[in-house]
Amino acid sequence: MKHSRYTILFFFSICSLCFGSFKLLAAEEGQGTPNVILIMSDDQGWGDVGFNGNTDIQTPNLDSMARNGVRFDRFYAAAPLCSPTRGSCLTGRFPFRFGILAAHTGGMRVGEITIAEMLKKRGYQTGFFGKWHMGWVKSEEVSTRGVYSPPSHHGYDEFFATTSAVPTWDPTVTPEGWEKWGSTSGEPWKGGFPYMHNGKEATENLAGDDSRVIMDRAIPFIEQNKSNPFFATIWFHTPHEPVVAGEEYKKRYAKFGKARQNYYGCITAMDEQVGRLRTKLRALGIEKNTVVFFCSDNGPSDGLAKKGVASAGPFKGHKHMMYEGGVLEPACAEWPGVIPAETTTEVRCSTVDYFPTIAKLVGYKFSSKQDRPIDGIDLMPVINGTVTARDKPLFLGYRRLYSGIDGKAIISGDYKLLKEAKKKGRFGLYDLKQDPEETNNLASEKPELFRKLSEQLAEIEESCQLSRDGADYRY
């Protein structure tokens, strides 16, 4: 009898080990269905978070997220401004491939395959919440630039979205003293109802902190889908201009001037909503099956950076510039039980890496008819330390040729070749390992390297042109 019982116990032990190995193998082969959340801030500089060393701005929840997961110390936006970067997040492709080269210059093409479309094929529920900026979200909206291309055209089951920027406090009202973009202080912001919820103008629960307004729509979506795999894209407007904070948040920064009170205050308000999200995931018991990514879309606002309010940390430049300050972003990711706490990496990662990372996690592959160039890499080997250097170059840039703007850069290994975005901008070659502040232009000292990177850049541009002209789309 004893022998029989031990045999049974041995049998079940082997089964348990085999089952555990099967689960590990399945995860490695990408057969899992983790929930995925992409969070993005807007115009938040590398130095505008506590986890990158800022001691003035209070970001305890983002700091906790970075501490409990991975902090990306060298994470790049695909462009030094919003719309191109956003498209790169969802497609895994350089902006010059899908044709959104700057803000308000086009919309996401339906021929592109987004993360939302990919995950829908894996049975996910998909929701978008916040600033879209890859086409108009209102069908009746007419403008001299841009096209109607809402989230629902790109794989999202639910969406609560604006076309572009709104004030970070009371998003339906033009703030006091704001006179830009044809707006008048105190008047309704862009008609008064900039948010569209599943194709209808949202008219309720729009007062106060804009980040809270967004999260009020995202959390119910998560609650409704807690038992099913879901993909939530939460793209805040904070701290893009008009930058406004509520009184309770400004009081926390009373020792600073008005500009800093608003800027720091609205970031802290956004951070609270990140904390609210993390708390909800734990309350629902789904945090261990949910990977949460965070980054900004580009460097800090030109004007606020020049005034010393917003920070790119030690890096040169700001939004609209090809230097590190324009494209290097605060970024982290959290996945309890999968990503070890206190993980950091200096491998050069990017917004184009989200798509291939998520594709590998869920085991997605393009069909032969849909196959196309993907410019990103899988981040998981970077996070677990098996990949210690990026094996393909990064191409960054944006373009407004009518005004002479054609900024671009290629990063290959530790070297960066850039062309300044401004008209007749200079070329520069920098060793980012030895000179991360980009103070020493090596173009004349290393002519052979300059030539090699220039050729690489031209090859990538040519490939992107083919994609943009339709080579990747099938009719």
Automatic annotation (TrEMBL):
InterPro entries linked: Alkaline_phosphatase_core_sf (IPR017850), Sulfatase (IPR050738), Sulfatase_N (IPR000917)
Enzyme Commission code: 3.1.6.6
Signal peptide (UniProt feature, chain positions): 1-26
Ranges of residues in domain Sulfatase N-terminal: 34-364
Family under the similarity heading: Belongs to the sulfatase family.
Pfam family, one: Sulfatase
Identification of the protein by name: Choline-sulfatase
Domain of life (superkingdom): Bacteria
Name of the top EC class for this enzyme: hydrolase
Keywords: Hydrolase, Signal
GO MF terms, alphabetically ordered: arylsulfatase activity; choline-sulfatase activity
